[in-house]
Amino acid sequence: MITGIELIKACSAIGAGLAMIAGIGPGIGQGYAAGKGAEAVGRQPEAQGDVTRTMLLGAAVAETTGIYGLIVAMILLFANPFI
């Protein structure tokens, strides 16, 4: 028989796994941004500094989504508020 605590732990593990799916979006977004940044520098090499700066800022903002997913997963696995 499954107790309530075991059920909460199992559901938390599933939830942590689902939270890590949030890492897919930033990976796709950063790859797309890097490709477009390289394309822009190829077309206008004199604008390399501006393009690179903007691309890195966008990558940093996109990465926060993956970090939030990781934090949620860690909380569910190690500091579970439901137990």
UniProtKB/TrEMBL annotation:
Family: Belongs to the ATPase C chain family.
Gene that encodes it: atpE
Keyword Nucleotide-binding: no
PROSITE patterns associated with the record: ATPASE_C (PS00605)
HAMAP family found in the cross-reference section: ATP_synth_c_bact
Transmembrane segments: 57-79
Site keyed Reversibly protonated during proton transport: positions: E63
The protein's name in its UniProt record: ATP synthase subunit c
Swiss-Prot/TrEMBL keywords: ATP synthesis, Cell membrane, CF(0), Hydrogen ion transport, Ion transport, Lipid-binding, Membrane, Transmembrane, Transmembrane helix, Transport
Species of origin: Alkalibacter rhizosphaerae
Residue ranges annotated for the V-ATPase proteolipid subunit C-like domain, each copy included: 14-76
GO cellular component terms listed in the entry, alphabetical order: plasma membrane; proton-transporting ATP synthase complex; proton-transporting two-sector ATPase complex, proton-transporting domain
Function noted in UniProt: Key component of the F(0) channel; it plays a direct role in translocation across the membrane. A homomeric c-ring of between 10-14 subunits forms the central stalk rotor element with the F(1) delta and epsilon subunits.
GO MF, any single term: lipid binding
Keyword Membrane assigned: yes
Compartment(s) of residence: Cell membrane; Membrane
Signal peptide feature range: none
Its membrane topology: Multi-pass membrane protein
